[in-house]
Specification:
- The complex is a heterodimer.
- Chain A is of the alpha+beta class.
- Chain A contains 7 helices and 7 strands, in the order E-E-E-E-H-H-E-E-E-H-H-H-H-H.
- Chain A has one domain.
- Chain A has a 6-stranded antiparallel beta barrel with strand order 1-2-5-4-3-7.
- Chain A is globular and about 55 Å long.
- The mean pLDDT of chain A is about 90.
- Chain B has a 9-stranded mixed β-sheet, sandwiched between helices.
- In chain B, strand 8, helix 5 and strand 9 form a beta-alpha-beta unit.
- In chain B, helix 1 crosses helix 6 and helix 4 runs parallel beside helix 5.
- Chain B starts with a helix and ends with a helix.
- The chains are: A alpha+beta, B alpha+beta.
């Protein structure tokens, strides 16, 4: 059985997305990763679309400290409080859910719960989730701070890594995108250019 | 209505013009103060004798070292730890039906060296018991002092020190450490209260916690203690110079000053200690040690008698207060000098441990609102009357 890795805890949630705080600074999952969280009987799946590291308190901005330090690591050594004053968060777009053991590539009935644990999906779960490529529809039709070209291509690159024949997976995804983006050739081209192996 | 700055503007102009006009005179006085400081340096025993036999209404600093001494900071140890606390409070609100106050202590431990680490935490404590809301003299009824306003501020200092002693006890043994308090070691405010209040808060509280920290020192553990006052307004050293300037052999300000026409000591009037030492100390240096001669210290502090020195951090002078057991131990004194300076350098001019302790402790206006809301909604949940004064309601709900 694949090991499940816990990557954060939900601190903000809506029907379409959730924000999770990492337990360790800078340990957010890569852009485009498939993650999951559970709310009683429903398992929600999401794609990481943004990560951010900021001060815990909105009014306290970080300042440059390394002028006289030899390395970046030395800054953290000389200011041990920094690790307690900064936090890393990542935002996730909800792309599907599993209920009664059935996988659905559409939004769940309710948003995720605050303080819900977020796990990185195992390769097996990624394969199972991405075999029908229906989730791409949500990614194509969303408006996020990150452009959907970047998000879709990052997501496909991430997913392709769990396939033995990643090239075939990307070709199949390309074909699906060609249908979804039949009226937007330039976007299709932008995505295909970013997933070429 | 917002403050009408148009009306304030000409008054600000007047203030600045006055300051400008006085600046030449001030510079002259400052130079005179420096000259006297240097001149008295070699005359320490005479000055000490004169101070001991004089009576002044103003506070003077007892000299320990030659007045114009200045010391380079010792090197910073490779491994060390800093513990610091700070506090804030929500005062008793007489417009509320619930009588209580809250003290929030921010506590910080920073460890530097090969395995750096940080602990930042806050400890809010709600006080609502009768014995917590007033201080009562033993065996006598009717003279109790309510813990609110100034007295609550003093109680907060006691709680900060209590928590600092707990933090210090948990510091790792084997590495030199500094326990740091924000503000003064001298609980001045108690001078306005009856003796039993001083007994309860200072002798049985603050000083007992200082003793706890002192007792932690042994062969394997070295803990120094200091308090840090940024941009101090004190004039104790300048007042010492006034005594030195006075042509009388024995000075009694109550008797002599009102009839004095020559007023030689006015040559240094208006100068603060920090201006004096900004001109004397190079960045990183500390001044000579001085003893606080305040009444409360002389009467109660005993082995924790408060010494102080000034420290130059970049372009600012800070006042660092230390108990006698630190001041008279060169090792610990050096540790305070080097570690306080190091903390300031890491913290943009102010000790980083104190600034983080403050961040942990701070109670904002919104926090205060939320706290009272929590109290009121809890009263409602339990079907208890939640009354507040009409004045308090009118401040919260504004109308035209």
């Amino acid at each position: 059985m694949d090991k499940v890795q816990r990557v954060g805890e939900i601190i903000e949630a809506s029907t379409t997305d959730f924000v999770a705080q990492c337990y360790e600074l800078y340990q957010s999952p890569p852009l485009g990763s498939l993650v999951k969280t559970r709310d009683s009987e429903v398992e929600l799946y999401g794609v990481v679309y943004q990560a951010i590291t900021t001060s815990f308190e909105p009014g306290r901005r970080s300042i440059a400290r390394g002028k006289d330090e030899a390395s970046e690591e030395a800054i953290y050594q000389a200011n041990p409080q920094l690790l307690k004053l900064l936090k890393s968060e990542f935002s996730t777009l909800v792309v599907g859910h599993r209920q009664d053991d059935k996988l659905h590539h559409y939004l769940p009935p309710k948003p995720a719960r605050i303080h819900g644990f977020v796990y990185l999906c195992s390769p097996e779960e990624v394969r199972s989730f991405s075999q029908p490529l229906d989730f791409l529809n949500i990614l194509v039709n969303t408006h996020l701070p990150v452009s959907s070209d970047e998000l879709i291509s990052a997501c496909l690159r991430q997913m392709s890594q769990v396939y033995e024949d990643s090239h075939s997976f990307l070709v199949a995804a390309g074909k699906e995108l060609a249908i979804l983006l039949s009226s937007d050739f330039s976007q299709l081209k932008a995505i295909l250019g970013r997933i070429q192996t | 209505m917002p403050l009408d700055l148009d009306k304030v503007f000409p008054q600000v102009g007047g203030m600045i013009a006055r300051m400008k006009a006085e600046s030449t005179e001030r510079r002259k006085r400052l130079q005179q103060a420096l000259d006297i400081l240097h001149a008295q340096a070699s005359n320490l025993s005479n000055l000490t004798r004169k101070i001991a036999s004089s009576k002044t209404t103003w506070l003077i600093a007892g000299p320990v070292d030659e007045l114009d001494q200045h010391y380079e900071p010792p090197s910073v140890p490779s491994e060390f730890a800093i513990a610091a606390t700070d506090g804030s409070h929500i005062d008793v609100d007489r417009h509320k039906s619930t009588r209580c106050y809250l003290i929030n202590i921010g506590a910080v431990v920073l460890q530097y060296g090969s395995s750096p680490s940080a602990t930042l935490d806050s400890f809010p404590n709600l006080y609502s018991g009768d014995e917590e809301l007033v201080i009562t003299p033993a065996g006598v009824k009717g003279r109790e002092q309510p813990v609110e306003g100034t007295l609550l501020g003093i109680k907060r200092s006691v709680d900060e020190c209590c928590h600092l002693a707990k933090l210090a006890a948990e510091l790792p043994a084997g590495i030199p450490s500094l326990a740091l308090i924000d503000g003064s070691l001298i609980l001045w405010g108690l001078e306005a209260y009856p003796e039993f209040v001083t007994e309860a808060l200072l002798v049985k509280g603050f000083l007992s916690y200082l003793s706890n920290i002192e007792k932690l020192n042994n062969n394997s553990r070295k803990i120094a203690l200091a308090s840090y006052i940024s941009f101090p307004r004190s004039t104790e050293v300048v007042n010492t110079l006034r005594v030195a300037i006075c042509p009388r052999d024995i000075l009694d300000t109550d008797q002599h000053c009102k009839d004095c026409e020559t007023r030689e000591c006015d040559a240094v009037a208006g100068i603060r200690d920090r201006e004096l030492f900004l001109n004397l100390l190079r960045p990183g240096e500390r001044s000579a040690r001085f003893i606080s001669r305040s009444k409360i210290v002389e009467k109660h502090y005993r082995e924790h008698e408060v010494y102080f020195f000034y420290l130059r951090v970049d372009d600012e002078i800070a006042r660092v207060e230390i108990p006698r057991w630190v001041a008279m131990d060169n090792n610990r004194l050096g540790l305070v000098h080097s570690l306080v300076l190091d903390q300031c350098q890491r913290g943009q001019g102010y000790p980083v441990a104190l600034s983080e302790a403050h961040e942990q402790a701070v109670v904002t206006g919104a926090d205060r609102e939320n706290f009272w809301q929590l109290v009121e909604s809890s009263l409602v949940d339990e079907h208890l009357p939640s009354l507040s004064s009409a004045k308090s309601r009118s401040k919260r709900t504004r109308w035209v």
